[in-house]
Design brief:
mainly alpha
Length: 151
Protein backbone atom coordinates (compact mmCIF):
# COMPACT_ATOMS: atom_id res chain seq x y z
CA UNK A 1 0.00 0.00 0.00
CA UNK A 2 1.51 3.33 -1.02
CA UNK A 3 1.50 6.42 1.15
CA UNK A 4 0.17 9.72 -0.08
CA UNK A 5 2.42 12.56 1.01
CA UNK A 6 0.78 14.54 3.80
CA UNK A 7 -1.80 11.90 4.59
CA UNK A 8 -0.03 8.81 5.86
CA UNK A 9 3.48 10.12 6.38
CA UNK A 10 2.58 12.84 8.86
CA UNK A 11 4.08 15.54 6.63
CA UNK A 12 1.96 18.54 5.74
CA UNK A 13 0.19 18.24 2.41
CA UNK A 14 1.21 20.74 -0.25
CA UNK A 15 -1.14 23.74 -0.50
CA UNK A 16 -2.18 25.45 -3.71
CA UNK A 17 -0.64 28.92 -4.05
CA UNK A 18 -2.61 31.52 -2.11
CA UNK A 19 -4.43 29.14 0.25
CA UNK A 20 -4.08 30.11 3.91
CA UNK A 21 -1.90 27.99 6.13
CA UNK A 22 -3.91 25.46 8.13
CA UNK A 23 -3.13 27.19 11.42
CA UNK A 24 -4.90 30.37 10.22
CA UNK A 25 -8.14 28.60 9.30
CA UNK A 26 -10.43 28.27 12.32
CA UNK A 27 -11.55 24.74 12.94
CA UNK A 28 -15.31 24.24 12.98
CA UNK A 29 -16.91 21.37 14.82
CA UNK A 30 -18.68 18.87 12.62
CA UNK A 31 -21.98 17.62 13.99
CA UNK A 32 -23.54 14.44 12.72
CA UNK A 33 -27.12 13.50 13.45
CA UNK A 34 -25.96 11.39 16.40
CA UNK A 35 -23.94 14.31 17.84
CA UNK A 36 -26.70 16.92 17.63
CA UNK A 37 -27.64 18.78 20.76
CA UNK A 38 -30.83 17.66 22.46
CA UNK A 39 -33.89 19.63 21.40
CA UNK A 40 -34.16 22.86 23.33
CA UNK A 41 -30.65 22.74 24.79
CA UNK A 42 -29.53 25.98 23.16
CA UNK A 43 -32.73 27.74 24.22
CA UNK A 44 -32.23 26.55 27.79
CA UNK A 45 -28.60 27.66 27.82
CA UNK A 46 -29.49 31.10 26.47
CA UNK A 47 -32.39 31.49 28.91
CA UNK A 48 -30.10 30.57 31.80
CA UNK A 49 -27.72 33.37 30.76
CA UNK A 50 -30.62 35.83 30.59
CA UNK A 51 -31.94 34.74 34.01
CA UNK A 52 -28.49 35.18 35.53
CA UNK A 53 -28.17 38.73 34.19
CA UNK A 54 -29.44 41.77 36.06
CA UNK A 55 -30.10 43.65 32.83
CA UNK A 56 -31.23 42.92 29.27
CA UNK A 57 -28.51 41.33 27.14
CA UNK A 58 -27.63 41.75 23.48
CA UNK A 59 -26.85 38.65 21.42
CA UNK A 60 -23.12 39.44 21.72
CA UNK A 61 -23.41 39.67 25.51
CA UNK A 62 -25.33 36.38 25.63
CA UNK A 63 -22.66 34.78 23.46
CA UNK A 64 -19.99 35.97 25.89
CA UNK A 65 -21.98 34.84 28.92
CA UNK A 66 -22.52 31.29 27.73
CA UNK A 67 -18.90 30.86 26.71
CA UNK A 68 -19.84 28.40 23.99
CA UNK A 69 -18.35 28.31 20.54
CA UNK A 70 -21.57 29.57 18.95
CA UNK A 71 -21.71 32.18 16.26
CA UNK A 72 -23.42 35.42 17.25
CA UNK A 73 -25.85 34.84 14.38
CA UNK A 74 -26.86 31.51 15.95
CA UNK A 75 -27.47 33.23 19.30
CA UNK A 76 -29.49 35.93 17.51
CA UNK A 77 -31.59 33.30 15.74
CA UNK A 78 -32.36 31.49 19.02
CA UNK A 79 -33.24 34.80 20.71
CA UNK A 80 -35.54 35.71 17.80
CA UNK A 81 -37.31 32.36 18.12
CA UNK A 82 -37.70 32.86 21.87
CA UNK A 83 -39.15 36.31 21.16
CA UNK A 84 -41.65 34.85 18.69
CA UNK A 85 -42.73 32.32 21.35
CA UNK A 86 -43.22 35.11 23.90
CA UNK A 87 -40.48 33.72 26.15
CA UNK A 88 -38.40 36.91 25.98
CA UNK A 89 -39.08 40.58 25.33
CA UNK A 90 -36.73 42.86 23.47
CA UNK A 91 -35.84 46.52 23.46
CA UNK A 92 -33.78 48.50 21.00
CA UNK A 93 -30.08 48.56 21.80
CA UNK A 94 -28.20 50.45 19.11
CA UNK A 95 -28.80 48.78 15.76
CA UNK A 96 -30.03 45.55 17.37
CA UNK A 97 -31.96 44.40 20.39
CA UNK A 98 -31.37 43.52 24.02
CA UNK A 99 -33.42 40.64 25.43
CA UNK A 100 -35.07 39.97 28.79
CA UNK A 101 -36.91 36.79 29.84
CA UNK A 102 -40.66 37.26 30.36
CA UNK A 103 -40.71 34.96 33.38
CA UNK A 104 -38.44 32.99 35.67
CA UNK A 105 -37.62 29.30 35.19
CA UNK A 106 -40.54 27.96 37.28
CA UNK A 107 -42.95 30.25 35.45
CA UNK A 108 -41.71 29.08 32.08
CA UNK A 109 -42.02 25.43 33.11
CA UNK A 110 -45.59 26.03 34.27
CA UNK A 111 -46.42 27.75 30.98
CA UNK A 112 -45.00 24.81 29.03
CA UNK A 113 -47.05 22.37 31.11
CA UNK A 114 -50.21 24.39 30.39
CA UNK A 115 -49.35 24.49 26.70
CA UNK A 116 -48.98 20.72 26.55
CA UNK A 117 -52.24 20.22 28.44
CA UNK A 118 -54.13 22.50 26.02
CA UNK A 119 -53.00 20.31 23.11
CA UNK A 120 -54.80 17.25 24.46
CA UNK A 121 -58.55 16.69 24.08
CA UNK A 122 -58.76 14.20 26.96
CA UNK A 123 -57.41 16.45 29.71
CA UNK A 124 -58.73 14.29 32.54
CA UNK A 125 -56.70 11.29 31.37
CA UNK A 126 -53.58 13.41 30.96
CA UNK A 127 -53.97 14.89 34.44
CA UNK A 128 -54.77 11.49 35.95
CA UNK A 129 -51.62 9.98 34.45
CA UNK A 130 -49.56 12.98 35.53
CA UNK A 131 -50.77 12.68 39.12
CA UNK A 132 -50.28 8.90 39.15
CA UNK A 133 -46.60 9.43 38.33
CA UNK A 134 -45.94 11.96 41.11
CA UNK A 135 -43.74 11.06 44.03
CA UNK A 136 -45.44 10.98 47.42
CA UNK A 137 -43.79 14.29 48.30
CA UNK A 138 -44.93 15.97 45.08
CA UNK A 139 -48.44 14.59 45.51
CA UNK A 140 -48.63 16.06 49.01
CA UNK A 141 -47.27 19.38 47.75
CA UNK A 142 -49.90 19.43 45.01
CA UNK A 143 -52.63 18.67 47.56
CA UNK A 144 -51.38 21.51 49.77
CA UNK A 145 -51.31 23.90 46.82
CA UNK A 146 -54.84 22.93 45.76
CA UNK A 147 -56.02 23.44 49.34
CA UNK A 148 -54.56 26.95 49.27
CA UNK A 149 -51.46 26.26 51.36
CA UNK A 150 -47.85 27.09 50.37
CA UNK A 151 -48.80 29.72 47.79
Amino acid sequence: MSQVKGISSGEPAPRPHGDPAPETVPERPHHTASERRPSGELESTILAALWAADTPLTPGQVQGAIGAALARTTVTTILSRLYEKGTVTRTRAGRGFAYTPTEDAPGLTARRMHSELRKEEDRSTVLARFVSQLTDEDEQLLRDLLDGENR
